[in-house]
Specification:
With 372 residues, the protein is α/β, with parallel strands linked by helices. Helices cover 46% and strands 16% of the residues. The radius of gyration is 24 Å and the shape is globular.
């Protein structure tokens, strides 16, 4: 059990009875690990016997039985079969609340309504969490901690059913947020689906790039293209199910790109430099609106420390920061190929920057740069 799971296990779970999870991939297995750590009876089902056995072997739950009577069913399957599985689970478990964790909410709901399915016990939801790698082997109990978990209720949703789904999110350390399916899909188009396409398009330019160019790659380009490693098969389904909102954002973005390209074609033309500066400035303003730690809109300052490529150095760095009473708000590590050291970027509140620099320097650390 991870430290996070152990901490959760000290509190009583809000969900009760058996929780049936259909789909033992990354999200389904991660939910299973977290709930199992709380002592909840987790019954796993998956169309792939190998995937199911792997999830059980790793401790995400037990194999589901025909005589199970779950209080909650979590559908964690690919988007193109989500509605089918929801319909089947509603019919098979008439006393259970059914939720799903698909990244698109309107399309499954529309399909169920068109089929005339009674959706009184169905509540769509979506945890904004994941990893670049998929499958049961990549599952972790703590991937939901501190992350938003959207819950889409409607007029037919009972208070008790809503409390059960929101309780699931809270048990996993997530922050439940109520949204309509329409608002959810427009939101994820902007903050998830289009960024995936932008990262993939940019990384696609590397395929034919000279090796010499790629050797210059630093942390900035790695951060920008990190999610380009995602699985194409899954994203074809997600983007197809949320096509209209994605196209709206792409069309607006294409117009912005065209404006910048026009300005750079004649950089000395009147207004060209201002157009470029306004683009960068508007990006600054957008980044400032992104919520930070605990959902706060706070700006942190980076302190970049050179860390020797030797065992135990990161542990010593964090130990020194703790002794200095400097809280690490965020952290990332850049290690260039062939280098005998890495650059650890520690994000701290502005008031702690000088204390961190002075204290770490006194302890023998070399500060590579700050935000100055």
């Amino acid at each position: 059990m991870t430290d996070t799971s152990a901490a959760h296990a000290r509190a009583a779970a809000r969900v009760h009875g058996t929780v049936r999870i259909v789909g033992a991939g990354l999200l389904g297995s991660s939910i299973g690990h977290a709930l199992s750590g709380l002592g909840v009876d987790v019954a796993l089902a998956d169309s792939s016997p190998a995937q199911l056995r792997l999830a059980v072997d790793y401790g995400a739950g037990r194999v589901a039985r025909e005589d199970d009577s779950p209080s909650l069913v979590v559908v964690a399957v690919p988007p193109d079969v989500t509605a089918d599985v929801i319909e089947r689970e509603l019919a098979a478990h008439p006393d259970a609340v059914v939720t799903d964790v698909a990244s698109v909410k309107l399309e499954p709901l529309r399909t169920l309504r068109e089929r005339g399915v009674d959706i009184a016990r169905y509540i769509g939801s979506h945890p904004l969490a994941g990893r670049e790698r998929g499958g049961a082997i990549a599952a972790r109990a703590d991937i939901f901690v501190g992350r938003p978990w959207v819950v889409c209720r409607d007029g037919e949703t009972s208070a008790a059913d809503l409390a059960l789904v929101e309780g699931l999110a809270l048990d996993l350390g997530a922050m439940p947020l109520e949204m309509t399916p329409e608002d959810h899909d427009r939101s994820v188009a902007l903050i998830s689906h289009v960024p995936q396409l932008v990262a993939s398009l940019l990384a696609g330019r590397f395929v034919d790039a000279p090796d010499g160019s790629l050797r210059l790659a630093g942390q900035g380009v790695r951060d920008t293209t990190r999610i380009a490693a995602s699985a194409p098969e899954l994203w074809v389904q997600i983007l197809g199910a949320n096509a209209a909102p994605v196209v709206d954002v792409l069309d607006a973005l294409a117009g912005d790109l065209s404006d910048v390209a026009d300005a750079l074609r004649e950089p000395d033309a009147p207004g060209a430099r201002r157009a470029v500066a306004d683009t960068i400035r508007r990006g600054n303003q957008g980044v400032e609106r992104l919520p930070g730690k605990h959902g706060q809109n706070r700006r942190f300052e980076p302190v970049v420390v050179m860390v020797d490529d030797r065992p135990g150095q990161l542990g010593r760095l964090f130990g020194d920061l703790g002794a200095l009473d400097v809280n690490v708000e965020d952290f990332r590590m850049e290690h260039s190929p062939g280098a005998l050291f890495g650059l650890a970027e520690i994000s701290v509140v502005p008031g702690a920057v000088q204390r961190a620099i002075d204290g770490l320097t006194a302890r023998g650390w070399k500060i590579a740069s700050t935000n100055d």
